[in-house]
Amino acid sequence: MKRAGILNRHLSGALAELGHGDGVLVCDAGMPIPAGPRVVDLAFRAGVPSFAEVLDGLLAELVVEGATAAREIREANPAAAALLDGEFPELRLVTHERLKELSAGARLVVRTGEARPYANVLLRCGVFF
């Protein structure tokens, strides 16, 4: 049994399969999930687990070279916007519709229980060397 880190076996296994350039969509409970990517649904109840908790856990285990979010987050969800700005100084912003289009190319979707709007980010995996 793992001692620390992500304990969910489905998520831990999916992360181990990722490579350089792969996309990981971390999304709220309301984001439409495209057909194609592997999905690990962590949503339990509204707000549980939160977007912030899941993102924090993922960033502790992944090398991320870029991130994309919907520009609507700035007005509709300032707390999530501040979180992303703090983690990703070069956060790329696109329309929510464009983010949904880009999500179809993700290798993995991690659905949270987040119930605040636009708490979604598409991560691009990097390499550790």
Index terms:
129 residues, alpha/beta, 32% helix
- The N- and C-terminal alpha carbons lie at a distance of 28 Å
Query: Helicity range of the residues?
Result: 25-40%
Structural class: alpha/beta
Task: Summarize the main sheet.
Answer: 6 strands, mixed
Q: Which spans have pLDDT < 50 for at least 5 consecutive residues?
A: none
Q: What is the 3D shape?
A: globular
Descriptive account of the structure:
This protein is of the alpha/beta class and 129 residues long. Helix content is 32%, strand content 22%. The protein contains 5 helices and 6 strands; from the N terminus they run αββαβααβαββ. It has helices spanning 9-16, 51-61, 73-76, 78-87, 96-103, and strands at 23-27, 38-41, 64-70, 92-94, 108-111, 121-125. It has a 6-stranded mixed sheet. The chain is globular. The mean pLDDT is 97.
SSE map:
Blueprint: H1 9-16, E1 23-27, E2 38-41, H2 51-61, E3 64-70, H3 73-76, H4 78-87, E4 92-94, H5 96-103, E5 108-111, E6 121-125
Parallel strand pairs: 1-5, 2-5, 3-4
Antiparallel strand pairs: 1-6, 3-6
